Amino acid sequence: MSFFGFDTSLPNQGKGAGREKRTATPDKPLDFDETYQGLGEYENEEDDYLNNETFGNATDLGTDFDFGYGNGEINNGAVPTAAQVDHGRSYASAATTGPAVTNTGYAAAAPHSMDEGMDFTPMESLWTNQPMMMHHPQQPQHPQVLSMEELERQQQQQQVGVSHGQQQAYMGMPPMPPMGYGYAPQAFMPQAQVMPGAAYPSAPQGMPPQGLALPPQGMPPQSMPPPGMAPPQYQQHTLAMQQQPGAHQQAAHLAPSVVSPLAQQELQQSPHLVQKAAHPASAAVSDFATPSPPHLINSKSAQGQPRLGSPSQMAPSSQDSRESTPRGTRRGSMRKHQEPLSQDDFKRLQVRQAKVDKILRHSGVMTPRDKDFITRYQLSQIVTDDPYNEDFYFQVYKIIQRGGIVGESNKGLIARAYLEHSGHRLGGRYKRADVALQRMQSQVEKAVTVAKERPQKNRENFDGAKEGVLGKISSAKNSKAPRRQLQIPQQRDEDEDISSSAIEDVVESLNGVDISSSSRARRRSSYAFRSVDQRAVLSRSGGRKFVLSLIETVYAEVLDLEALLRSGKETDSTHLWESLHIADDAYEVSPFISILSFDKGVKIMPRIFNFLSKEQKLKLLYCFFSELSHLNIIVTSSYKTNPDPSDSQLKKIELFQSVFLKIIVSFLSSSAEFLEVLGLLLALVKNNNVSFISTSKIGLNLVTVLISRAALIKQDVSRGSVLSTVEASSWNEIYDKLFTALETKLAAVFPPEEYTSRVVVTSSNGTPTSATVGQSSGHQFYDQSYIWQFLASLALSGKLNHQRVIIDEIREEIFGTISRAEQLVKNVPAEEQQIALYQRDKLYQDLNLFLNVMGLVARDGEISELK
Amino acid sequence: MLFFSFFKTLVDQEVTVELKNDIELKGTLKSVDQFLNLKLDNISCSNESKYPHLSSVRNIFIRGSTVRYVYLNKNMVDTNLLQDAARREAMSARK
Amino acid sequence: MSPLLKDFLNKRIVVVTTDGQCVKAVLEGFDKSTNLLLSDVQDRVSGDVVASSYLMRGNQVVCCGLLEEEPSLQPDFGAESVITQLKDTKNIVPDEHLIWQRVWGMKAGK
């Protein structure tokens, strides 16, 4: 707001000659229209609502509001000098003045109604005693004490007055703040009083408005002398008498009912007031009695020209005083008060007033309410039940950034959840996401190593098989068995197989996981789709919207559980489990499978696993493997259904590997029993088209995880305790089943050349993923290690005849890889020799993982027996 | 409170703030309050030749309401955590 | 109360307003909605005295920077070339109605 002539519409006017001029003549009244322009354009601030509370909004100020409060046509002889405080008043006071003026009809009489020297500065004395002391009266006064009855009567009158006044006198007054704040409703009265008082001598026509302000004091307007009937002096006197006592009484009365310390302070000082009130500074005293920041100081009174009555007139109710005091006395007393002011006193008062002005210069810019609000806000910032709740991001981020878990384990828990279990930390920004793959690989390698150490009792027979298949093995024994002797496992009836007793045992071991009915019914429509279009799957599990809302529910549950974990309470995963909809038969495809279609659904999995029991995890994985064909990521990562993977799809695959594959691997290796692994494998084989799944990288990974884990357990068991016959026969049956499903399609696990080169191109253009390897970005090539890992673990668990079949089917790939490795070194220029060598070693390394299982090794273009 | 929380993690990091009057200020974020008012230190104005008004100013307070963009380095944000925090806030709003 | 402006109290600052004005002044006080109480307000470019005391509404404030130069030194701009007037923050498209007129015309044409 442009109180001081600072023109807010500056840019339109260029720089400031006009402003300077105005600043130079501060006494010149301001035309509000000039400064107001453009202010209306400011949009409301969100905090403006407090303005209404603070300043009142009952009356629209309008554009004719006079900030200059009159042109100083004061004829009453007052000299507006010392109290010319034209700055430092709060806009609060200005704003409250506005409605009062308008309401009392002073808009018309504005030029006359107010003293130019009037000070709008809020009184420090409202909050402290000191300013009050500065107004020490110099004359002895006669204290007038109200009797109890009087007090009560006045209180009643005043209450009546307030209720009426809401419509009458207070029309346009700001809405009253609730009790308990620094000021009571009556706070506004003195303004209405002081203004008329100040203006009255020169403006008798201001009478009616004053009358309006009176009812709260129990003085009906009609009791007022009509304008002009009484001499101005008398009128002024009467009014002052009528108003001031009222104000004082209200303050004195209300004080007890107001609980604030301010009010109490006030109360304590009330006697002072009564005793010392009849001084030139009586207006200031009435200020004091009014616990309102929007306040007025009457400059005339400060100048020692009292216009208000003696204490005897101030204290009692107006009616009482009117009855008891003759008019003449009143008039006389007033004169009497004017007399004692000497020139010295006058000067002293001026000095005092100047000091007060200085002190008050900027006071009241913030009202006590502002201060209070801010204090409360600050407190609410400091004190909170759960800083994680209020300030979650900051708290957790800081813990993570500190690079470790410092302090109490309680704090660390949630951070650990992010650090260790969530995929984005492992993959994501800093590292490539092959941790899960490495883990799987090490599992396979471990199994292979064990296999290598195995006493090779049937070595001869074994060699023969290899020889026949691979043609030229530099083995000691030559071409013992012709190729046609290969034993091809006999095709068996599928259903018979599944219902065999061994399988039933496996099923039982899965803690009552229900293989039968629902999931079987569900799978029928399964692996028929041949496109990447995931909408088909989504629609069969409730629709995209449904699945997305499921994910959010799951997140909500997890966040709740994590909050419980932090506060050290027991967690109950029942709700979380239900929200996963794993056992939900209502849909053709389990909604859980569709949850995994979305990145955020995949990302939450590790955190879900933190809360699930082992049984629940098993069920979850069972569901997962049973409906693997529906899994979007399988379709995406299969070269058959998605021959041209995009960058984002490769990233999706990457994410799935690093997050979900990892938790499967860690679950299987840490807590799964042999039979449980078998159960999962069975679920996979029985319900899905394994040969399709094996064309996808993720699918192959999953199969590898299962069979290599099973092989490892079997090896461990065979060293230590004995594998029960049931377990052994179950394993054999399931393996046979798996093998049958893959037989004759084993070569199909190798993606065609076009596919691999596409992946290489895509991922070297986009973000590098673990789909390719290479020392530099320019020399990436497709990483086939996952295929060899699969073949190795398949061969590892198979019998000799199985191994023969494998070798037979992928013979081309074995030799193809060897020759590719040799070509690499031959055909590259010298400067790229290093890269080529690395690439060749990598190829051999992968291939040998598989060959080692059978006691063979490939190097330098030849396959030889493993020493 | 989410973005207040978020901006607090950016304290002492270098950010670029674009204001609604097209001024771009680059500097170290020193503090932020609940209105997302920002305080930058060691500022440089990327279009200073055009707007020299803020030359010889190093330490600046920016009112949150006049900020158009805050440019961040990608690794200053933990998006997964931010998503979680957003979910938490949505959850607590629902309750 | 936001403590952010506390460091600037009673110091010379540069204030940019939403209507593209730039002044320097001494910060006498402020509140949580960035209402500023300024004294000795001068135009940043010309150095002209704008006001001796001024209460600036918070929603007018774009930013305030702590002035580190000597108070007597005038910034080196303004002497020879015309300083680019700072933009306001309202980003009003001039004659926007004409654009919409054309858009609607095109839609009607189709």
Automatic annotation (TrEMBL), chain A:
Instruction: Write the record's keywords in alphabetical order, separated by commas.
Output: Cytoplasm, Nucleus, RNA-binding
> Compositionally biased, Polar residues: which spans?
298-319
UniProt lists compositionally biased (Low complexity) regions at: 231-254
Q: Which Gene Ontology molecular function entries are recorded, alphabetically?
A: RNA binding
Lineage top rank: taxon: Eukaryota
Q: Does the keyword RNA-binding apply?
A: yes
Return one Gene Ontology term, BP aspect: P-body assembly
Return the annotated region ranges for Disordered. Answer: 1-32, 200-254, 271-346, 473-498
Which spans does this entry mark as compositional bias, Basic and acidic residues?
17-31, 336-346
Domain mRNA decay factor PAT1 as annotated: residue spans = 1-856
Main localization of the protein described in the UniProt heading: cytoplasm
Q: Is Chaperone a UniProt keyword of this protein?
A: no
Pfam families under this entry? PAT1
Where is there biased composition of kind Pro residues? 217-230
Cellular component terms, GO, for this chain's entry? nucleus; P-body
Q: Where in the cell is it found?
A: Cytoplasm, P-body; Nucleus
UniProt lists the family membership as follows:
Belongs to the PAT1 family.
This chain's protein is named LAQU0S09e03620g1_1
UniProt organism field: Lachancea quebecensis
At the highest ranks, the source species' classification is: Eukaryota, Fungi, Dikarya, Ascomycota, Saccharomycotina
From TrEMBL, chain B:
GO CC, one annotated term: P-body
User: Which PROSITE patterns is this protein grouped with?
Assistant: SM (PS52002)
GO-annotated biological processes: mRNA splicing, via spliceosome
Q: Enumerate the InterPro entries for this protein.
A: LSM_dom_sf, Sm, Sm_dom_euk/arc, U6_snRNA_Lsm2
UniProt record similarity statement: Belongs to the snRNP Sm proteins family.
The function of this protein is: Component of LSm protein complexes, which are involved in RNA processing and may function in a chaperone-like manner.
**UniProt-recorded name of the protein:** LSM complex subunit LSm2
* Organism annotation: Lachancea quebecensis
TrEMBL record, chain C:
Task: Provide any one GO MF term from the record.
Answer: mRNA binding
Q: Which gene encodes it?
A: LSM8
Give the Sm domain ranges: 1-70
Task: Tell me the lineage of the source organism.
Answer: Eukaryota, Fungi, Dikarya, Ascomycota, Saccharomycotina
What job does this protein perform?
Plays role in pre-mRNA splicing as component of the U4/U6-U5 tri-snRNP complex that is involved in spliceosome assembly, and as component of the precatalytic spliceosome (spliceosome B complex). The heptameric LSM2-8 complex binds specifically to the 3'-terminal U-tract of U6 snRNA.
Q: State where the protein is found.
A: Nucleus
Q: Which GO terms describe its cellular component?
A: precatalytic spliceosome; U4/U6 x U5 tri-snRNP complex; U6 snRNP
Main subcellular location of this protein, as a coarse class: nucleus
CDD domains from the UniProt entry:
LSm8 (cd01727)
Q: Which GO terms describe its biological process?
A: mRNA splicing, via spliceosome
Q: Which family does it belong to?
A: Belongs to the snRNP Sm proteins family.
- Indicate yes or no for the key word RNA-binding: yes
Q: How does it assemble?
A: LSm subunits form a heteromer with a doughnut shape.
What highest taxon heads this organism's lineage? Eukaryota
Q: What is this protein called?
A: LSM2-LSM8 complex subunit LSM8
**Source organism of the structure:** Lachancea quebecensis
| Keywords from the named record | mRNA processing, mRNA splicing, Nucleus, Ribonucleoprotein, RNA-binding, Spliceosome
